[in-house]
Protein backbone atom coordinates (compact mmCIF):
# COMPACT_ATOMS: atom_id res chain seq x y z
CA UNK A 1 0.00 0.00 0.00
CA UNK A 2 2.90 2.37 0.67
CA UNK A 3 3.75 2.35 -3.03
CA UNK A 4 0.65 4.38 -3.78
CA UNK A 5 1.63 7.23 -1.46
CA UNK A 6 5.43 7.47 -1.63
CA UNK A 7 5.81 8.72 -5.20
CA UNK A 8 4.91 12.32 -4.30
CA UNK A 9 6.10 14.53 -1.51
CA UNK A 10 2.73 16.11 -0.78
CA UNK A 11 0.38 13.11 -0.46
CA UNK A 12 -0.44 11.78 3.01
CA UNK A 13 -0.81 8.04 3.55
CA UNK A 14 -3.92 6.75 5.37
CA UNK A 15 -1.84 6.72 8.57
CA UNK A 16 -1.08 10.42 8.12
CA UNK A 17 2.55 9.95 7.09
CA UNK A 18 4.63 11.64 4.40
CA UNK A 19 6.84 8.84 3.15
CA UNK A 20 9.25 11.09 1.23
CA UNK A 21 10.12 12.87 4.49
CA UNK A 22 10.74 9.54 6.20
CA UNK A 23 12.96 8.43 3.32
CA UNK A 24 14.97 11.64 3.62
CA UNK A 25 15.42 11.09 7.35
CA UNK A 26 16.48 7.50 6.66
CA UNK A 27 19.16 8.80 4.27
CA UNK A 28 20.43 11.08 7.05
CA UNK A 29 20.64 8.15 9.48
CA UNK A 30 23.27 6.58 7.18
CA UNK A 31 25.35 9.76 6.82
CA UNK A 32 28.43 10.71 8.82
CA UNK A 33 27.44 11.71 12.34
CA UNK A 34 27.50 15.29 13.64
CA UNK A 35 27.62 15.94 17.37
CA UNK A 36 27.12 19.17 19.30
CA UNK A 37 27.52 19.96 23.01
CA UNK A 38 26.51 23.20 24.74
CA UNK A 39 28.66 24.39 27.65
CA UNK A 40 28.57 27.40 29.98
CA UNK A 41 31.10 29.36 27.93
CA UNK A 42 30.76 27.99 24.40
CA UNK A 43 29.66 25.26 22.00
CA UNK A 44 31.59 22.35 20.49
CA UNK A 45 30.76 20.73 17.14
CA UNK A 46 32.39 17.60 15.72
CA UNK A 47 31.56 15.72 12.53
CA UNK A 48 32.61 12.49 10.84
CA UNK A 49 33.86 12.96 7.28
CA UNK A 50 32.86 10.31 4.75
CA UNK A 51 34.88 11.55 1.76
CA UNK A 52 38.38 10.34 2.61
CA UNK A 53 41.35 8.98 0.70
CA UNK A 54 45.11 9.26 0.33
CA UNK A 55 44.74 11.10 -2.98
CA UNK A 56 42.42 13.81 -1.60
CA UNK A 57 44.13 17.21 -1.93
CA UNK A 58 44.00 18.99 1.43
CA UNK A 59 46.79 21.49 0.71
CA UNK A 60 44.39 24.44 0.70
CA UNK A 61 42.98 23.57 4.11
CA UNK A 62 46.48 23.05 5.55
CA UNK A 63 47.72 26.44 4.38
CA UNK A 64 44.72 28.63 5.16
CA UNK A 65 40.97 28.90 5.44
CA UNK A 66 38.97 27.13 8.09
CA UNK A 67 40.36 23.64 7.52
CA UNK A 68 39.00 20.29 6.47
CA UNK A 69 37.52 19.56 3.08
CA UNK A 70 34.47 21.72 3.82
CA UNK A 71 32.27 18.67 3.83
CA UNK A 72 30.53 18.81 7.21
CA UNK A 73 31.06 22.09 9.10
CA UNK A 74 30.34 25.56 7.70
CA UNK A 75 30.42 29.17 8.87
CA UNK A 76 26.96 30.67 8.34
CA UNK A 77 27.69 34.00 10.01
CA UNK A 78 30.20 35.44 12.46
CA UNK A 79 27.98 34.17 15.32
CA UNK A 80 26.68 30.88 13.82
CA UNK A 81 28.46 27.67 12.83
CA UNK A 82 26.55 24.71 11.35
CA UNK A 83 27.26 20.99 11.09
CA UNK A 84 25.43 19.01 8.42
CA UNK A 85 24.49 15.34 8.11
CA UNK A 86 23.08 13.95 4.90
CA UNK A 87 23.49 14.83 1.23
CA UNK A 88 26.30 17.37 1.06
CA UNK A 89 25.04 18.89 -2.20
CA UNK A 90 21.71 19.70 -0.53
CA UNK A 91 23.63 21.10 2.43
CA UNK A 92 25.61 23.44 0.16
CA UNK A 93 22.37 24.89 -1.19
CA UNK A 94 20.98 25.47 2.31
CA UNK A 95 24.27 26.92 3.56
CA UNK A 96 24.26 29.51 0.76
CA UNK A 97 20.62 30.37 1.54
CA UNK A 98 21.43 30.75 5.25
CA UNK A 99 24.43 32.99 4.55
CA UNK A 100 22.31 35.25 2.37
CA UNK A 101 19.58 35.39 5.04
CA UNK A 102 22.17 36.31 7.68
CA UNK A 103 23.62 39.09 5.51
CA UNK A 104 20.16 40.48 4.68
CA UNK A 105 19.38 40.64 8.42
CA UNK A 106 22.73 42.34 9.11
CA UNK A 107 22.09 44.88 6.32
CA UNK A 108 18.53 45.62 7.48
CA UNK A 109 19.00 45.75 11.27
CA UNK A 110 22.76 46.33 11.65
CA UNK A 111 23.11 43.37 14.00
CA UNK A 112 23.92 39.69 13.68
CA UNK A 113 20.94 37.45 13.07
CA UNK A 114 19.69 35.56 16.18
CA UNK A 115 20.31 31.81 15.94
CA UNK A 116 16.67 30.82 16.26
CA UNK A 117 15.60 33.30 13.57
CA UNK A 118 18.14 31.80 11.17
CA UNK A 119 16.94 28.28 11.99
CA UNK A 120 13.36 29.41 11.36
CA UNK A 121 14.28 30.88 7.96
CA UNK A 122 15.83 27.61 6.82
CA UNK A 123 12.98 25.56 8.25
CA UNK A 124 10.43 27.70 6.38
CA UNK A 125 12.26 26.83 3.16
CA UNK A 126 12.44 23.13 4.09
CA UNK A 127 8.75 23.02 4.98
CA UNK A 128 7.84 24.55 1.62
CA UNK A 129 9.47 21.58 -0.09
CA UNK A 130 7.04 19.26 1.75
CA UNK A 131 3.97 21.26 0.70
CA UNK A 132 4.31 21.99 -3.02
CA UNK A 133 4.28 19.32 -5.72
CA UNK A 134 7.15 18.38 -7.99
CA UNK A 135 9.89 18.95 -5.40
CA UNK A 136 11.65 16.49 -3.15
CA UNK A 137 12.62 17.43 0.43
CA UNK A 138 16.20 18.35 1.31
CA UNK A 139 18.03 15.21 2.43
CA UNK A 140 20.01 16.94 5.16
CA UNK A 141 19.77 17.75 8.88
CA UNK A 142 21.65 20.65 10.42
CA UNK A 143 23.02 21.45 13.87
CA UNK A 144 23.24 25.21 14.45
CA UNK A 145 25.72 26.43 17.07
CA UNK A 146 25.22 30.13 17.69
CA UNK A 147 25.30 33.07 20.06
CA UNK A 148 23.16 36.14 20.59
CA UNK A 149 23.33 38.73 23.40
CA UNK A 150 19.87 37.93 24.81
CA UNK A 151 19.99 34.12 25.12
CA UNK A 152 23.77 33.56 24.96
CA UNK A 153 24.93 30.26 23.46
CA UNK A 154 22.31 28.08 21.77
CA UNK A 155 22.30 24.75 19.96
CA UNK A 156 19.50 23.94 17.50
CA UNK A 157 18.71 20.96 15.30
CA UNK A 158 16.48 20.93 12.20
CA UNK A 159 15.34 18.04 10.00
CA UNK A 160 13.93 17.74 6.42
CA UNK A 161 10.33 18.25 7.53
CA UNK A 162 11.06 21.79 8.75
CA UNK A 163 10.89 20.94 12.45
CA UNK A 164 13.55 22.45 14.68
CA UNK A 165 14.35 22.16 18.39
CA UNK A 166 16.85 23.44 20.94
CA UNK A 167 19.27 21.06 22.67
CA UNK A 168 21.94 20.95 25.37
CA UNK A 169 23.70 18.10 23.56
CA UNK A 170 22.62 16.06 20.55
CA UNK A 171 23.79 13.97 17.62
CA UNK A 172 22.46 13.33 14.11
CA UNK A 173 23.57 10.84 11.49
CA UNK A 174 24.92 7.32 11.80
CA UNK A 175 25.03 5.79 15.29
CA UNK A 176 23.13 8.78 16.68
CA UNK A 177 21.18 6.54 19.10
CA UNK A 178 24.38 5.30 20.74
CA UNK A 179 25.78 8.82 20.95
CA UNK A 180 22.54 10.16 22.49
CA UNK A 181 22.60 7.52 25.22
CA UNK A 182 26.24 8.31 26.04
CA UNK A 183 25.47 12.04 26.17
CA UNK A 184 22.51 11.44 28.51
CA UNK A 185 24.80 9.59 30.92
CA UNK A 186 27.74 11.98 30.90
CA UNK A 187 26.41 15.47 30.13
CA UNK A 188 26.20 17.92 33.06
CA UNK A 189 24.55 21.34 33.03
CA UNK A 190 27.62 23.07 34.47
CA UNK A 191 30.05 21.54 31.95
CA UNK A 192 32.98 23.76 30.95
CA UNK A 193 34.39 24.23 27.47
CA UNK A 194 37.31 21.88 28.15
CA UNK A 195 34.89 19.30 29.53
CA UNK A 196 32.68 19.65 26.45
CA UNK A 197 35.65 19.12 24.10
CA UNK A 198 36.68 16.04 26.06
CA UNK A 199 33.10 14.68 26.05
CA UNK A 200 32.63 15.25 22.31
CA UNK A 201 35.88 13.52 21.39
CA UNK A 202 35.19 10.56 23.69
CA UNK A 203 31.70 10.08 22.29
CA UNK A 204 32.95 10.39 18.70
CA UNK A 205 35.68 7.83 19.35
CA UNK A 206 33.04 5.34 20.53
CA UNK A 207 30.46 5.96 17.81
CA UNK A 208 32.47 6.53 14.62
CA UNK A 209 32.75 3.65 12.19
CA UNK A 210 36.55 3.87 12.02
CA UNK A 211 38.71 2.40 14.79
CA UNK A 212 40.97 5.44 15.16
CA UNK A 213 40.33 9.17 15.25
CA UNK A 214 42.29 11.47 12.96
CA UNK A 215 41.99 14.69 10.99
CA UNK A 216 41.26 12.73 7.79
CA UNK A 217 38.06 11.43 9.39
CA UNK A 218 37.06 14.29 11.68
CA UNK A 219 36.01 17.93 11.43
CA UNK A 220 35.94 20.03 14.59
CA UNK A 221 34.73 23.52 15.51
CA UNK A 222 34.18 25.66 18.59
CA UNK A 223 32.22 28.85 19.25
CA UNK A 224 33.30 30.97 22.21
CA UNK A 225 33.32 34.60 23.32
CA UNK A 226 36.42 36.67 22.73
CA UNK A 227 37.59 37.69 26.23
CA UNK A 228 38.50 41.23 25.10
CA UNK A 229 35.76 42.24 22.66
CA UNK A 230 33.02 39.99 24.17
CA UNK A 231 32.02 39.11 20.61
CA UNK A 232 31.37 35.53 19.39
CA UNK A 233 34.48 33.89 18.01
CA UNK A 234 34.05 30.84 15.77
CA UNK A 235 36.97 28.53 15.11
CA UNK A 236 36.95 25.67 12.61
CA UNK A 237 40.06 23.59 13.25
CA UNK A 238 42.59 22.81 10.54
CA UNK A 239 43.73 19.16 10.14
CA UNK A 240 47.01 19.71 12.02
CA UNK A 241 45.13 21.35 14.91
CA UNK A 242 42.69 18.42 15.10
CA UNK A 243 45.57 15.93 15.28
CA UNK A 244 47.24 18.00 18.03
CA UNK A 245 43.96 18.14 19.98
CA UNK A 246 43.49 14.36 19.69
CA UNK A 247 47.04 13.74 20.90
CA UNK A 248 46.39 16.05 23.87
CA UNK A 249 43.26 14.05 24.75
CA UNK A 250 45.10 10.74 24.32
CA UNK A 251 42.99 9.70 21.33
CA UNK A 252 45.55 10.14 18.55
CA UNK A 253 47.12 7.45 16.38
CA UNK A 254 50.26 6.82 18.43
CA UNK A 255 50.76 3.17 17.54
CA UNK A 256 50.20 3.69 13.82
CA UNK A 257 52.60 6.64 13.75
CA UNK A 258 55.39 4.64 15.37
CA UNK A 259 54.84 1.74 12.97
CA UNK A 260 54.99 4.09 9.97
CA UNK A 261 58.24 5.62 11.20
CA UNK A 262 59.84 2.21 11.78
From TrEMBL:
Q: Where in the cell is it found?
A: Cytoplasm; Nucleus
Record keywords: Nucleus included?
Answer: yes
A single Gene Ontology CC annotation of this entry is: nucleus
- Gene3D superfamilies of this UniProt entry? Glutamine Phosphoribosylpyrophosphate, subunit 1, domain 1
User: Which InterPro entries is this protein grouped with?
Assistant: Ntn_hydrolases_N, Proteasome_alpha, Proteasome_alpha-type, Proteasome_asu_N, Proteasome_sua/b
Arranged from A to Z, the UniProt key words for this protein are: Cytoplasm, Nucleus, Proteasome
Principal location: cytoplasm
List, in alphabetical order, the GO biological process terms annotated in this UniProt record.
Answer: ubiquitin-dependent protein catabolic process
Highest taxon of the source?
Eukaryota
CDD domains reported for this sequence: proteasome_alpha_type_4 (cd03752)
Which stretches make up the Proteasome alpha-type subunits domain? Answer: 5-27
Give the NCBIfam families listed for this entry: PRK03996.1 (NF003075)
**What does the UniProt record say this protein does?**
The proteasome is a multicatalytic proteinase complex which is characterized by its ability to cleave peptides with Arg, Phe, Tyr, Leu, and Glu adjacent to the leaving group at neutral or slightly basic pH. The proteasome has an ATP-dependent proteolytic activity.
Summarize the subunit comment: The 26S proteasome consists of a 20S proteasome core and two 19S regulatory subunits.
- State the family named in the UniProt similarity comment for this chain: Belongs to the peptidase T1A family.
Q: What is this protein called?
A: Proteasome subunit alpha type
Amino acid sequence: MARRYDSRTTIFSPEGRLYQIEYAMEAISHAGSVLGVLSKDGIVLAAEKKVTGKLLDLSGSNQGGYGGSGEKIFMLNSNVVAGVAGITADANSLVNYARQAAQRHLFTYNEDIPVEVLAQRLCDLKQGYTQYGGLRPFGVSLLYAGYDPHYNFQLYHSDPSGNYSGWKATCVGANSGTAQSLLKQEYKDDITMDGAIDLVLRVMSKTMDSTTLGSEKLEFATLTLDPETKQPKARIYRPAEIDALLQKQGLGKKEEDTEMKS
